[in-house]
Structure prediction request, 244 residues.
Amino acid sequence: MLVRVNADGMVQQVSLKDVPFSRAQLPNAPEDKVSGEGPRARNNRDLSITDLAWVDGQVIVSGMTSAKSPSNVRALAFPFSEANEGASLEIYHAAHAKTEDNAPVRTFVPFVIDGKPNLLAGFTCTPLVQFPLDGLSGEKVKGKTVAELGNRNQPLDMIVYKKDGKNYLLLSNSARGVMKISTADIEKNQGLTTPVGGGGTAGQTYDTISSLTGVVQLDKLNDDNAVVLVQDGSSLSLKSVALP
Prediction:
């Protein structure tokens, strides 16, 4: 169901009857089965699409595939004709002290660095990794880990905004609140290549926004405000907040 909420708080269903659409079928989605044991058991089919964004006439899609290196991002031309195989992703995960290609992007944003389009992608436990957008047609792309934001945590949603002439990322998390991440000198960031233990952080710096708790989704509303979906127990609330 697709719904809209007007300025008076009225919720209305948006009818999709007879609405024209185009469709792209993912050619390499994971098999529908559970793998792993205990708390690490999961069905990668559920992670076929983890996030998407519209960028310059393309739909960028992250998720998992059936490939040997399953973490993937693909760029689909729009209107859709067919979906390509995408590019497998490889990252250095500083909290795990190893290189990985089996962890899905959880959320990402397009971001221009040194005049070139890139993606800044958040992974579980919680590396922030830069990928060049023009490199997503290769078989495997190695990202640059520009920050380690702390372990035992899953990033949920992320936006880019400008405040006082500077660009920031606003990232909501399952266990570490909402982070305001600086992008200052990110073009000079050489990337993390050594372990970061003990739940520590490194790379791009951030502040935790203590006034924002329980945020499970967010989006930019305008230049000064964001709209956030807040979970409190079993209830959800939708509200607008000033960008910090």
The mean pLDDT is 95. The chain has no helices and 22 strands. The first strand starts at residue 3 and ends at 5.
